[in-house]
Write a structure and sequence with these properties.
This protein is 75% helix and 6% strand. With 196 residues, the protein is mainly α.
């Protein structure tokens, strides 16, 4: 428990600094949220990279199975073998489901730092409200810290996506992922093959 308390104190002192840096409190709040969002994005992107490269063998196997079975189903259609098509297509759809949900899991793995950031923001800014220019039916005319933090996080996430290929650590990750995309041995056949 002492380790967690020490980490929490370090985290608090590291990030509250940016909230207190400008003399104008609202600017400090937005600067602090931007820095906190950047930290969440960086840690999330590193998490995705670790999860991807750790599970690359399984992801490769699922992708190969999906492409292979899809291509077999297209070839079965070309051969007008309905039974083989249905069988191959069922296995291809199952493999697609595995690939689809592994991609979702990888994407969601980048969001775990946001939960910790939101928890920390709640300890510091739970009672802070922001007035809205109009009263909205569901939330009224005041909102809390998450109403401002989430748009800042999304903006930082988008901006980071534009520049991450130029940053030293992420440049390597982006290159390895681009290589991975071009390494596929078998290409997926399209249904336009049926009309040839």
């Amino acid at each position: 428990m002492e380790i967690l308390a020490t980490l929490q104190l370090w985290f608090d002192s590291a990030f509250i600094y940016f909230f207190r840096l400008p003399d104008i409190p609202i600017l400090g709040y937005y600067l602090g949220c931007a820095v906190l969002s950047l930290a969440c994005v960086v840690v999330g992107q590193i998490t995705i990279a670790i999860a991807f490269f750790w599970n690359k063998r399984f992801i490769d196997a699922d992708n190969r199975e999906m492409v292979r079975m899809h291509n077999l189903s297209v070839r079965a259609l070309l051969a007008k073998d309905k039974k083989a098509y249905k069988s191959c297509n069922k296995v291809a759809n199952d493999a697609f489901g595995k690939v689809f949900f592994s991609q979702i899991a990888l994407s969601v793995s980048s969001l775990w730092p946001v939960a910790f950031a939101a928890g920390w923001l709640q300890t510091r800014f739970q009672d802070v409200t922001f007035a809205l220019p109009v009263s909205l039916p569901v939330i009224g005319n005041q909102v809390g810290f998450m109403f401002t933090f989430l748009p800042i996080y999304i903006l930082v996430y988008i901006l980071f996506g534009w520049i991450k290929g130029r940053l030293p650590l992420f440049r390597t990750i982006v290159k390895r992922l681009e290589q991975y995309d071009t390494e596929s041995t078998e290409k997926m056949l399209s249904f336009s093959e049926l009309t040839r």
